[in-house]
Input
Amino acid sequence: MAMPMSRLKKPSQGRTVALHSYKGGTGKTTLIANLAAYYAQSGLRVCLLDFDLYAPSLSMYFRKQPATFLNSLLKGENEKGGKPDVSQILVDVSSELGLNGKLFLGFSSPGREDIAEIEIKHDQKWQLAAIRRFLSAKNQLFEEYEIDYLLLDTSPGIRYWSINTLAVADTLFLIMKNSDMDIEGTRKMTNDIYNSLTKFGSKYYIILNKIAGASPIDEFNRATNEKEFEMELEKSIGAKVVGSIPCYCDIQFNRHEFLFTIKKPDHPFSKKLVALADKINSLE
Amino acid sequence: MKPAEVFPGSSRLIEGSFPRASVLLMGPTGIGKTIFSKQFIYNGLLKGETCIYVSTEEPADEISKSMKAFGFDVEQFATKGTFRVVDCYSWKLEKTPWNKYVVKNPSDLLSVLKVIDNARDELRDIRLVLDSITGLTSVCEHNLLEVVRFLQILVAKVRTSNGNAIFVAVPEAHDPQLISHFRLMFDGIFEMKEAESNRQITRLFRVFSLKGARHKTTWTPFEITNSGIELRSENQLRCEMCSALIEWEPHVESVRGERHFFDKPECANTYKKLKDVYGENFE
Output
């Protein structure tokens, strides 16, 4: 499969990256699935876990029905030798996608009961035990599966499991659309939560997605204002913009966009995504 | 998947990568030295190394059978030719089973060396087990200096082929002076013993010495399970964040005036982040 030239370096130690947003519909899942596939296509070992536990979509995106969901691992149902065993929830799609590296996927359950269970059924003690199981599984991914990138899709906003997932990651990416509502909400969210995370080592960056301007007529005069807008945004949110991806109608209105980056590497979206993936890879 | 351990528990007891070494494994009869050695061989086979098992205790087919009982299926490796048994046992039988590497007279140590050389076939990165020095000395007891010289030559050959080797011995069966000789000859000493408390026998293992590697020297309890030797943990300190057993030094941090123990700095950071967000609700 033809791929744009890659300058990717293998991280010296496994990195945990979370994609987050204030609101839903920012394109997190599309971005993270394409990032994961691109890294794996470039020869890296990647694991993508759907931690959007309240509204999972990764199993729909990959059209997979796993035997065991991430929820079981968090509940303590997948244990081996007294420890959570991540291998029971992983689906290896490397060969069916013809990837040069490895791509393991972990899906969360879209079932009503499972979502309600995570949301309301359990107390703080259970939730803490669930975080511990997740951390143990994360250790297993890095030690046994030798993962280079652990990518975590999160729930939007400030919810219990979005915070937990962000706390476990070392690098966070805020996905935003260019709308006042999204910007204001994100600004408030970073003030409330992100400071606690950055105090103890997390780094976070902004990715602008679905930005107007991909149409041939640049009604918004984007090129002129882009720099100024990004600078203002960086000041207001307190983080650097590392990527700006235009809105493409053929992706936005595709009934089932599926890994454009590897299926259609010449598409402008794929080129933008590759540039973003390279940029993320170069961040320390 | 996880790379196979060099020997049972090596990733826990040795820090960093395992140096190429010839090691003397000592312990009383029946403690688990042979299973330990077979596991060491099987780990090497899984890594694609050529492994040579020099046995004075069992013939080749018995070795394969007993290894299979622990889930160490060596048949495919024997067919491929990466698992080779140097048989110093079958000379006792009237009918010697067919094996490419049978030693007809193990009291002639030169002939033992010759068969081992054939099995080594000038390959590099090999693994070798001699099980046991005690068995070999029992047939050539009259010339112990020759045994010492034989071992020195074998250790040198393993070293030049960048190999790893375990030499098994039962110390009670040897003159203490000879054991002192043995100790000087090898790159490392592994020991096994039994301890009895409350009418229960506990098997213990320790890395007494190992050149070129930082290692634990404490006695670690082990069990012989259906899947071979498993080291138990004496140190029950667990990470307060990920619950992992802390094998080496704990990472200690003071959070809000209280000391907390973690497996690694990342766990401490996750703990501090969650504590900062949830406050007292996070316990």
